[in-house]
Design a protein that fits this description.
By secondary structure, the chain is an alpha+beta fold. It has two domains: 88 residues; 142 residues, Roll (Nuclear Transport Factor 2, Chain: A). The protein has eight helices and six strands. A four-stranded antiparallel sheet has the order 3-4-5-6, with helices on one face. Strands 1-2 form a two-stranded parallel ribbon. Helix 2 packs parallel to helix 4 and helix 3 runs antiparallel to helix 4.
């Protein structure tokens, strides 16, 4: 009588080599690696985006613990370590780049503000006025600029109104007797592809008595001109006789 069991499927015993060599890959480790790669987005985002590398680190640590717990049947330690390394690098690099960029913008703003004050201290209000113009329409700040205003009635009217402003008259009258010092950056933010900075400057002068100090606030924008690929500064507004936060809060 034929053996009826000979036609049945044959299953390998659990101790055969091809079964024992099989090890699964941890899905959590793969996710941690992808999160580490995705953490590069934090380099181009504000502080809220820094949560991405933090999440990548948490996933990587969880994956490493899981792989260790189920070793040796579970693979993924190298992927989890790679994800951990990437997330850690971007967690450090993103805030560093962000703070360095803000520091650079603040530094450029101070230089631009000092240039504006220097024009007035040197009796060159026509040049200081040009710093309010958009970079694409700004006239060259050279000796020929005086000839531009008489030829353009609108620009001449703007210059005449500018030198009649109380704060401008004061700075022009003081000239180089005014000592201008950077005091504080009271706000700084990035909006629509431009950087906006509001800085306060202390102007000190001595006219026969005790030294007198008053404060002037400058709101300035750093804009990038696509045609040149360069960034330019522009004076947006001015606040005369203001009170810095350290002296009791903003005011006029």
């Amino acid at each position: 009588m034929p053996d009826m069991l000979s036609d049945r499927p044959h299953f390998h015993a659990p101790d055969e080599p091809d079964v024992l060599d099989y090890r699964a890959i941890s899905g959590l480790a793969v996710v941690a690696l992808l999160a580490g790669l995705g953490s590069s987005i934090a380099m181009s985002t504000a502080p809220p985006g820094w949560i991405l590398p933090l999440g990548g680190i948490a996933l990587s640590i969880a994956a490493l613990r899981r792989v260790k717990r189920y070793a040796p049947v579970l693979l993924g330690r190298k992927a989890a370590l790679a994800g951990l390394a990437l997330s850690t690098v971007f967690l450090v690099a993103a805030p560093t780049a962000w703070f360095l960029y803000r520091w650079q913008v603040e530094k450029e703003g101070r230089q631009f503000g000092a240039l504006w004050f220097d024009f007035l201290r040197n009796n060159e209000p026509h040049k200081a006025l040009q710093l309010r113009e958009h970079p694409t329409s700004r006239q060259p700040l050279d000796d020929a600029l005086w000839k531009f205003y008489p030829q353009h009635s609108e620009s001449r009217g703007q210059l005449e109104g500018f030198v009649r402003e109380k704060g401008i008259r004061t700075l022009l009258a003081l000239g180089d007797r005014a000592i201008v010092r950077y005091y504080d950056t009271q706000s700084q933010e990035a909006l629509d592809g431009r950087d906006s900075v509001h800085q306060v400057y202390a102007v000190t002068c001595q006219l026969g008595g005790e030294p007198t100090t008053f404060f002037i606030g400058l709101s300035m924008d750093r804009v990038r001109v696509p045609a040149t690929g360069r960034a330019y500064w522009r004076l947006i507004s001015r606040s005369d006789g203001m009170h810095p936060r350290a002296l009791g809060g903003p005011g006029m």
